[in-house]
Design goal:
Number of strands: 9
Largest sheet: 7 strands, parallel
Oligomer: single chain
Order of helices and strands: EHEEHEEHHEHEHEHEHH
Strand content: 15-25%
Structural class: alpha/beta
Strand order of the largest sheet: 4-2-6-1-7-8-9
Helix content: 25-40%
Number of helices: 9
């Protein structure tokens, strides 16, 4: 796996902190890592973006950002409103492929969910994944409502012939309710793919050194971690 696309079931589900955790675990395993943010929205020219946050938490990663648009909107909409050129899927694929010639692992973080539009033609992260034949990691929320959007995303990936590597819960609460605890067992069923990790709520607030030490314990071996999905399921079972 040289390129891994990271998308979410929506906004604010923990994509960036999950990207940072995957990067940190890969670095700890001795791999070189690049992080590509396909399109950054809602951030000014001199402000820190998602790729910068990944680097702050994970450490020595190469970061790249293809475009930055000022309003916190879907990339295609933000580009149009700003009068700026949009990002196209082929540009994302080309940038990721170039980074993959120089790094062991390239993480491509999308914006919002899988089908958020990059351009007026309707190009999405899914199109970039198809061009690269890259697997997709889905970051999902823990609680009520997550099963529907997780299954819809998984079905869309399948309809496009794309591989769903697995699901990571982007923010696991300290006191999970009944829905969260049931979803540990139900999410893999909804996705048709394994649960590959669960990040604790507030992980991004950890000191970077503590984040890097802990990151492998939040992720399954497939993502260079030590997290045990079955042990987690049994522990959290209602």
């Amino acid at each position: 796996m040289r390129v891994l696309m990271i998308t979410g079931t929506g906004t604010e589900v923990g994509k960036t902190v999950t990207t940072a955790a995957v990067a940190a675990a890969a670095l700890a395993a001795g791999r070189s890592v690049a992080v590509l943010k396909a399109a950054q929205t809602g951030v000014g020219p001199d402000e820190r973006g998602d790729a910068d946050e990944v680097a702050r938490l994970a450490g020595a990663v190469t970061t790249s950002e293809l475009a930055r648009f000022p309003e916190p909107l879907a990339p295609g909409t933000a580009a149009r409103r700003a009068g700026m050129a949009p990002v196209h899927p082929h540009e994302v694929a080309e940038a990721a492929a170039k980074l993959a010639t120089e790094h062991d692992l390239v993480l491509v973080e999308g914006a919002g969910g899988l089908l958020v539009r990059f351009d007026a033609a309707g190009g999405t992260l899914a199109d970039a994944a198809r061009l690269l034949d890259a697997p997709v990691l889905l970051v999902a929320s823990a609680g009520l409502g997550t099963l529907n959007i997780t299954e819809l995303t998984a079905r869309e990936l399948g309809s496009r012939g794309l591989r769903l590597a697995g699901v990571v819960i982007g923010s696991w609460p300290g006191a999970p309710d009944l829905a969260c605890r049931c979803n540990v067992a139900d999410l893999p069923e909804a996705a048709g793919a394994p649960l590959l990790g669960a990040l604790p709520a507030g992980a991004s607030a950890l000191a970077p050194a503590d984040f890097r030490t802990a990151a492998p314990t939040w992720l399954a071996p497939r993502l260079e971690g030590t997290w045990d999905a079955e042990a987690f399921r049994v522990r959290e079972a209602p």
